[in-house]
Amino acid sequence: MTDRVVLAYSGGLDTSVAIPFLAEKTGAEVIAVAVDVGQGGEDMEVIRKRAVDCGAVESVVVDAREEFAADFCVPALQANALYMDRYPLVSALSRPLIVKHLAAAAKEFGGTHVSHGCTGKGNDQVRFEAGLAALFPELKVVAPARDYAWTRDKAIAYAEEKNLPIETSKKNPYSIDANLWGRAVETGFLEDIWNGPIEDVYAYTADPAEPREADEVIISFVRGVPAALDGRALTPFQIISELNRRAGAQGVGRLDMVEDRLVGIKSREVYEAPGAIALITAHMELENVTVERDLARFKRSVDQRWGELVYDGLWFSPLKRALDVFIAEAQEHVTGEIRMTLHGGRATVTGRRSETSLYDFNLATYDTGDTFDQSLAKGFVELWSLPSKIAAARDRRL
């Protein structure tokens, strides 16, 4: 039986060249799988046909935009997932979804191997292969860029030699990964971390310094899931898409950071995630209103660990699954509305309302008639301070 390689296919130069290269190098048939996670660009049918024209025996395209939003972006939102307190896991979220569809294609078409275009320096090789190890451990992995030292120059020469139907002359100065949740840009002049990003780096966001009218939006959540914008019931995909446009037009969600990669090196990355940053900001504020103090404190540590696990490629791990259960329970009362002003590169919360709110005006007010019994506070403070008072006395004695 002929081996069959299931290739994660983007339609670009590197993965198009991988089709005949893998067939030639391994003697296997290649099945191309392209997944639409809201990255934009070319029509998916054009990409499907290109894979066939490059020699794929099967070419599969999957419209996974709604699935990505509901099953991957929403859990990240509920976890307020910000790696290193800043990065909303743009690329890390799409990889387990792609892995899921690679594994499904391998089962459908009798795949024996999977292939991806990742290098040995990046996080994505781990995300693909750790995910596949969890879902379909029998599959072997081949990664041309890593395993055969396949460079862009070699890819261009090979494409021209084989007369492949792919553009080879244009060289984008950046390495870009985009999806519904955001856009990641690296390499080129950005590798010098003293160089500031220039405007042509960005595509999802407008210059926040440009003068414009502010945009006010009301985001509704039901148990931590975004459910409506300005009173209009929408799917998570529709909400993220609209906020990408509206928050992006205000320059919200630009990030420039030096990041700790899983493989041990530091990497300079420029991100733009307008919808993600606006939604996480709103969700965190609604949690402030609706989640009890000790649960909220503990959840912050869970959120951080959840983000690290997903960044590190462990979406399908036992710990990640267990944390999902905790986070889902913590979302039980995260229902309500957050009003935000989008302007000048910032998403600023200006109002909150919720039927499950723990904010009690009569307890919080400083006006006459408040229901907070201040006479109870003196004894509380004395008891609360007692351990520190006893320890301080001990220290003075010694």
From TrEMBL:
A GO term from the CC aspect: cytoplasm
Record keywords: Amino-acid biosynthesis, Arginine biosynthesis, ATP-binding, Cytoplasm, Ligase, Nucleotide-binding
Residue ranges of domain Arginosuccinate synthase C-terminal in the record: 174-390
Swiss-Prot/TrEMBL catalytic activity: L-citrulline + L-aspartate + ATP = 2-(N(omega)-L-arginino)succinate + AMP + diphosphate + H(+)
Binding site for L-citrulline: 87, 123, 127, 175, 259, 271
Pathway in which this enzyme or protein is active: Amino-acid biosynthesis; L-arginine biosynthesis; L-arginine from L-ornithine and carbamoyl phosphate: step 2/3
Enzyme class: ligase
Protein's name in the database: Argininosuccinate synthase
The species this protein was found in: Planobispora takensis
